[in-house]
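Reopening this one. Same input as before:
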Amino acid sequence: MNKLSLLPLIIYFISINAMSADAKGNTSSPSKILGAPVNTAISGGSLLPQGMLLTAVNSSFRDKDNQIKGSGSPDIYSQIWLLKIRYGMTDRLEGVTVGSYINNRRDNMSPEHIEGVGDQSVGLSYALLSQRAGAPFWLTVGGAVLLPTGQDGDNHLPGNGAWGGRASVSLTKFFTPNIKGDMDFIFQGPFERGNQDVKRGNEFQWNTQFRYMFSEIPWDIGVESAYSHNDSGTRELSTGRVINNQSGTTEWVIGPSFNVAIDSINVWLGFGSFFPVMQEVKSATKMENVRWEFKVGKTW
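Same output, byte for byte:
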């Protein structure tokens, strides 16, 4: 784990060398579809041009077998799948929707799988500042409604199937045509109880990435950071009593990622590995030592 946690530093020094090379007079341009984050939580502040459509499948795989607190928690193999669709309505206004599917396989537990479709988000993002229009950086605000599309039942995700909301502030800056940084501040939470009479806790996210896009080859490399604090949820018992389910977590992961562009068909492929630097939980819980994340995107 100590050796693996050095990977972000390796990527950082590679990026610094690439910045030096760029300063010496690199005149060619990188692929226009490079630069996207791979981590499922990160978006950034730059918006699509008017009339452009983007679709992306983003996945995360987590083998949770490391006991963080207490004892006796089941091992969990977690899959998260997201379908992200974005459309440039104007050069400053973008429509966004994200659908999800999650499958948590639990060892020696019944039901073995807690899985299902998540609550679909539908929203808008507006650029208060646009670097494409001449501003020094992108500053974007966003809002979304979480639709109660989640499934009910003991083998589906607790708290899903509830109306909710999401608000975000995002920044992006292209320091040069080859170098960019992104940062997001996100708050989201439910308005009501969902599946299994659970009301999920509110969530705060702080996400960042630093990325270098090569000009001579259709690749980029980056370092990505995703911080998430989830409040504990509550469950309403059959007696009407409401109890705290002690499900709160605080997680922070950092790691390297890369994308490769296939310009002829406007497709890029991304891969990242993200390692925990902070893991805090309210009750006995097992968590992962690494997250493996993938992304396939296309512009239309």
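So the earlier flakiness isn't reproducible anymore. For the record, The first strand starts at residue 53 and ends at 69.
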